Amino acid sequence: MKVSNRIAGLTGGGSDGWDVFYKARAMMADGVDVTELTIGEHDIRTDPSILDAMDRSARAGHTGYASVPGTPALRDAIAARVEARTGVKTTRDNVLITPGGQSALFTAHHAVCDEGDIALYCDPFYTTYPGTIRGVGAQPRAVPCRPEAAFQPRFADIAAKRDYAVSILVNTPNNPTGVVYDEQTVEGIARACIEYDMWCISDEVYDTQVWSGTHLSPRALPGMAERTLVVGSMSKSHAMTGSRVGWIVGPQEVIAHAINLATHITYGVPGYIQDAALFALTAGPELEDRVGAPFAKRRDLAHEILAGQNAVRLVPNAGAMYLMLDVRDTGLSGEAFALALLHQERIAVMPGESFGEAAAGHVRVAMTVEDARFEDALRRIVAFAGTKSA
Known about the structure:
- By secondary structure, the protein is α/β, with parallel strands linked by helices.
- Helix content is 42%, strand content 14%.
- A seven-stranded mixed β-sheet has the order 2-8-7-6-5-3-4, sandwiched between helices. A four-stranded antiparallel β-sheet has the order 9-10-13-12. Strands 1-11 form a two-stranded parallel sheet.
- Helix 6 links the parallel strand 3 and strand 4.
């Protein structure tokens, strides 16, 4: 017996980009002390006040089936949040609650792509993007975002790839690069979507982690609200990665169809978890600031460490919890650099090639260990690169 071609081909027949991560975890399981800077998992846990709210809700009986679109109160809160960020009138009818941002990405592509349709995504990309598109039966096509353009997807880059495409997936602040798309970039994305009649799926899960510049959602621009699906999540903003609470915000008709899809694949998110998310959202910006503060501090620390050396170059990172380091001067690929670093220094980073062709010769460093360990690891990465540089 054989499995379906769709599920067997999710990664396109190649690596899913997680080899270094799996090797690092295997070493750690064997008792090796590895500094793991691979995945975007906070080194703090979910705030106790959020867990208390979750416990109160569960003990009060909100443990049965919850409303599939999401509880009205949580949908209202997210509608208000997105309206404040985009300036576009938003109600609960524009919101679907999903089991995390990944489910939201999958649902959004199901909503706008038919079998065989071409769906664009930006390269470098979060590792699940092409597989998500293949998973709904569409064909992924990468828009290269080149290092010389600071990894910003320009209008010309999109135009060159847009033939027959029905959608484009963008991500700002960006994982893996840490780049925040500037106004020119977002305007170019909007222009491409309008001129070429494409949907914009905007992954904005890092919108609270902006260290310099300003986050601008494509939904905020003229003519875009009716063709944009915004994906959000509690994972990064509130360190609720394991709680699996995300959302899609979009036109009411699309959300109605997405709710029908959710009825068939997830049947909603547990009510007590939604209540905890509502508590977290209404706790105010202080809670979000506490979650983001360690990454802002470590970014500043990284700038200090990387200044005045030329073994690696830092991609200008304005947001998210990552550094992208250009290691091409070592003569190694990102994968070769990451594997050698793991085996020689016991430091695990993600190779740029895991995130697409445009990030080849780079590595992604997650700023997700406590300050002293992070500083030690980054100094050792620089020293290691210095031994490899020509």
